[in-house]
Every structure is written in structure tokens, then in C-alpha cells.
Amino acid sequence: MIKLAIDAMGSDKGSQIAVQASLKFVHDYDVELYVYGNEEELSSLQNKERIHIVKTTQVMEMTDGALASRRKKDSSMVRAIEDLKAHKVDGVVSCGSTGALLSSSTLLLGTLEQIERPAIMTVLPTSNKRGVVLLDIGANASNTASQLEKFAILGKAYAKGVRQVENPKVALLNIGSEAKKGDDLRKETYQLLENNDQIHFIGNVEGKDVLNSNADVIVCDGFTGNVMLKTIEGASVFMMKSLKENLMDGLLSKVGAVLSKKSLKRMKMQLDPNQYGGAMIAGLPEAVVKGHGSSDEVALYHALRQLYLIVENHVIDKVKEELK
Amino acid sequence: MIKLAIDAMGSDKGSQIAVQASLKFVHDYDVELYVYGNEEELSSLQNKERIHIVKTTQVMEMTDGALASRRKKDSSMVRAIEDLKAHKVDGVVSCGSTGALLSSSTLLLGTLEQIERPAIMTVLPTSNKRGVVLLDIGANASNTASQLEKFAILGKAYAKGVRQVENPKVALLNIGSEAKKGDDLRKETYQLLENNDQIHFIGNVEGKDVLNSNADVIVCDGFTGNVMLKTIEGASVFMMKSLKENLMDGLLSKVGAVLSKKSLKRMKMQLDPNQYGGAMIAGLPEAVVKGHGSSDEVALYHALRQLYLIVENHVIDKVKEELK
């Protein structure tokens, strides 16, 4: 049976999110869950079938950066990754500090052959309903062209392995569609991708195409990807707010808004970044998923589901194949 | 009386957009308009009060890049900028090729003292209703920290001069709020802005804050700014589409949607990039505004209005003051 580890501590909303998500997840999926954290806080998970509490004494805080992974050896995060390394579990999900999770994972697990730097990978919804794999969304503050080429391979393997896309179309995020567009990094990456036989490269996409193109994978540096993802998040907040204000303005609209309420709620869920699930840390030899820091139990449930699919579909093995 | 030049050719939607916008604009504002383009296409402007047709024979196409400005000397774009240089008009608006407009302007007009590279500057709507000045949104494919510092000064002068913000708060777009966040460019720029007494620097903002912060000016490199702006455009298209689909799904919602139609239309206008007006090419010694390539007559009208405000408020003189 698949064994998944949950770092229950260090997220913005506290450990009860992990408790709720775990209970629902073991109910829906045939897995064993190992929940790492403060014994008392996790007490309501005691004696639950297929749930194991792993007592830890330290918490990786949101303010903890890369160095904390050496210091907090009994944190729920580090302990879960240690057990992943020892193959006591098959994958780890954490909503804690991104910096600490990245460094703990890289330090303890190493990276896959050929991979200098891991990338954080997520899936965004698209107009064509197929969704798009986007990486790197913030593991790196800057990248080289060769790193972006590797990200393309990681993204392709994920699109094939988890999303069952036959021959994933890979695009490069740029400021124009022609090959000569962009800065030196983009021009060099364009050439590498175009000349790589493993990659079905369809050229550049612009910001306006990210949610509206036919690409299956979009590659970008960690700085741009992070700004872009957070911009989508911010734009969605702005638009929902603006829509609400506009709908509440005038009596007829108010009636309309009540009737459309269910529709609006559905759309909000669709656009909610928490709903697309977690973000895989790609380039590691094991399955690690980062949940949004402000995840609620629904978002963490989705992150767990994503981790489950990665393990169930042997995505890491498929990535290794691609890198050969 | 203020004299404004309109490059009527080379936009995606043809010259009639310029004809319509010109007629409405002279009706609403006390200006003289000089409309550059094909005589026949502009014939409906003949004998209109305060409108002058300037016959030109060439058209700067969307595919024309930087080099075309030397080749197409009788294009509506180059002729308008020539007349701006000769002070026959006080400002130019064009919806033509960005590359050609940038190079024609820089070549013919030069740049302001201390300014190595112009920036394209726009104003985005914000949750607090005050709006935010954003630059560079794509004049440059890459920038240095010193260029970003100059962009901050240009943005500040515009916020003060056109938008009447007393002591504009300037922020740097980055991937985290702390000073040490981001790549080398961001770290270096942070230091320059923090140590610049002319700038009221409030630190970093992230992508999610762009439409939701209290900054009056946000500075970024041209690559990131272009990706971000186009991402907002694409996200708004995605969300409107998704909203429409969700609203049309179910009878009650359908009734609701009809009642809310006016509200939705209002919101769409608010989010429509064409509605925020044009984008100023900042750093030039004269007033040049770039309209969106797919502008309709409403968008071009707004771009004209923005140009009018820049001239009326002596923004270029204020920028020169700031740069002293």
C-alpha cells in the first residue's frame, strides 16, 4: 500500500488542517498516512485506521530559510524527509517554508543526475480545460539556459506520467513569439529547446497565452514564474472583489447576484490557487509536494491527491527514464 | 492651444479608429489635432474644425522593427515624430509597432539627460481605486539596476505630475518582501532605491500585490513587466470566459446573468487593458504615447486623453526637474 508522509506543522493555518485533510484522504484513498508533528495537536488522529502519528518536537517556521534544515533536525519537515530517504514512506507533502523545504530536500535527498537545481512545478487551469504544467515557479531566483532545458524535460515527464499527455507540447515563456525575442537567456534557451530531439518544442508563448494557449508545459526562470503565478493570484482576487462590488451596485443586479451565487462560488473555486493542488518539487530522486502556505483542508487534500498520483504513476522513475 | 499628433496608420484595426477617436476628442477637448496618414482614408476629417490632415505615403507595419525608422521616412509615424521634434505639435500618439515607435522616438528625439534607455509606462487599476504606475512594461528585454533606479524617478514624476500624488510611494517588483530577496539585479536595485533621497521607497512588492498594494509606482525590468502585464490581460480573458460559462450553466443562473449583465459589462470595461489608456514612453524629451495595437476608438480616445494630460500638466518639464 502507498505510504504518504504529511508535515502537519509550520503552515499558516496550523496543524488542524492536516488533521482534517488526513481523515478525509484515508477515507477516499487506499493509502497509509504518516502524520508528523506535535503529539498533542494530532491526538484526534489516534487509533484511526491507516493513520500513524509520528511525534516530532520542533517546527520549521515560515521565517526559517535554507539554513534551518541543518539546525532543526527534529522538525516535522526534516523528519518526514529523513523517512522518505530511508524509504519508510513513498512521498512527502508540506505546507511549510518553501526555502526550508527546498534546502532540506536537496540536502538530504540530493538531486537527480544531470539536474543542477530543482524546480517548483504547478498545474494551472486553461481555457481549453486541459490545464498546463508550469515550472519553475520560484525554487530559483535566477536560472541558466541549460537549467531551463532540464526543466522542460522534467515538465514533459510529469505531463506524460501524471497527466497522460501523449507527446507534450513544450513552450518557452517570452515577450514575443519570434525566436529572436527576449533577453540573452531566452534566446539561448530557445536554441537549446529547438535542437533537443526529446522535446516537442512549439516556440515562445507570451504572458497573455499562459492560461489560453495549447501548450502542455510552459518553461520559465524561477523569478519570472513566481511573479507570474502570484500575479494571476492577485488578479483573481482583484477581479472577484471588483465583480462583487459591481454586482452589489443596483437592486436588479443584487437580485441577479443572489441567483448567480452558486455559479460565482463555482468559478471562485476554479480560480482559487489552492484548488489546483500542490506544487511538485521536480528534480529530486523522491516525490516531494509543496502545498500553499495558506492552504486550508481542501487545498491540502488536493496536494495529497497530487502526491498520491505522482507515487501511483511512478513519475520519478519516468523522469529518470527521460533524463537518461 | 495644445496641438496633438495622431499616427492614424499601422494599428491592427485600421485608420478609421483614428478618424472616430479624433472627431470625438476635438468635440470634448479644446485642442488642435494633426492626423497623419493616407489622404483618402482620412477624407472624412476634411474641413472639420481644429482637425488637420497631414498626408503621408508610407505605413509602419506591425512587423516593422527598430530598423524601419530609417527606411520609412514618409511613414505617418516618423513624420509625426519629426513634427514633434520641430515643435509643430506638442505630443504624438501611435498604436503602431512598439519596436518602430521606440526606435523612431529615440533616434529622432534622443533621451533625457541621465536616461540611457526609455521605459514604457502604464497605469493599472487597483483594489484601493487609486491606480498604480507601472514601468518598464516592455521597452527593454533586460535592464541594469541603475536603469531601474531611473525608472523610479520617471514614474515618480508622472505620479506627481499627471496623477497629483503628493509624495508617491515607490515599490520594487520582487519575489518576496525582504531586502535580500530576488536575483542580483533586484538586490542591487533595492540598495540603490533605499539610498536615493529623492525616492519614497516602500520596499518590495510581489506579483499578488500589483493590483492590491498601496504603492503609487511599481518598478520592474522590461521583461518581467511585459510578462506580468500580458498575464493580467490573459487572466482577465480567462476569467470572463470562465464566468460566462459558469453563469450560463443552469436556468436560475441564466436569469441571474441577464439581471447582472450591466454589472458584468461595467466590470469588463474596468478590467479591459484598452480602457486604462495608452502607455507613455518615459525618458524622452517630448511627450509620446503608445496605444495598444488592438485599440478601438474608445481606447485610442483614452490614449489621446492621456497624452493631453501629459502636455497640459507639463510632465516632461517636471521629469527634467526630478532628474536635475
Structure classification of chain A: alpha/beta
Largest sheet of chain A: 11 strands, mixed
What's the total helix number of chain A?
Answer: 10
Radius of gyration of chain A: 20 Å
Q: What is the terminal separation of chain A in angstroms?
A: 29 Å
Element-by-element helix/strand order of chain A: EHEEHHEHEEHEHEEHHEEHH
Low-confidence runs of chain A (pLDDT<50, min 5 residues)?
Answer: none
Share in helix of chain A: 40-55%
| Largest two-chain interface | A-B, 60 and 60 residues
- The proportion of strand residues of chain A reads 15-25%
Arithmetic mean pLDDT of chain A:
90
Report the oligomer: homodimer
In total, the number of strands of chain A is: 11
Which overall shape of chain A is indicated by the principal axes computed on the Cα atoms? globular
Strand order of the largest sheet of chain A: 3-2-1-4-11-10-5-6-9-7-8
